[in-house]
Amino acid sequence: MPELPEVETYRRYFEATSLHQPIEAIEVEDRKLLTTDYATLTEMLIGQTFVSTKRVGKNLFIYTDGGPTLHMHFGMTGDLEYYHSSLDRPRHARIVFVFASGFHLGFICPRKFERIGLIESVDAYLKKKKIAPDALDISVEELTYNLRKRKSFIKPVLLDQSTVAGIGNWIVDEVLFQAKIHPETLSNRLTDEEIERIFSATRYVLETAIEHEANYGRFPQQFLIHSREWDVSPYEDAGRHKRCPCDKVEIAQMQVGGRTTYYCPECQVLR
Q: Which residues form the FPG-type domain (predicted)?
């Protein structure tokens, strides 16, 4: 599913294509994808223009010049596609914003898990949904507080969006590998130095993923993602598949908090 790096790529794409153009119409193929009823959505947005964006975790917020804020959640497979009206409507573009410029923005919803609607306030929405600060904005002090108040394994704690927003399953595995923390380490027993390593690794992994527009095959070879079972990378020798980047052992797989987890038993020792 789209994770923070993908959604940040979508945010930048949206800003590069869809700002400052009057909205002439909104075409909705499946109204079940709306969190705001269609009549209200069109009444509030038609004639307005999008002026700026904000991303918090996996949530994309779009501000307009007239007041209402649009919220996009990309579900499992959501995406955006900007195209001219002379071209065919993209496949699975179930919601389309029609601009006066002659261009359209399609909200791609292949599996219909995606959602779009209006919200009154970004801050109020985040508070209601108990979404913590974004993983690229959270301070080490905030992260420390959120980790220390939990008595669970660090893997599910980091996946909880009320701890830190925007990091999903593969990202948490990568962060813990880069920080050399075992996924079954108890969150409340982490030392200050270990939390600092998690904080730094989170920024490193996310900034790397954003830099490469979430193209995993281009990530540095010291990333665990190249050894994950589902990753078949054309950039590496198939014979190294599932071997830890430390080149000492094969990576291990287990369930932690109900999620498939990959780690290195040599680099991530449970203390």
A: 233-269
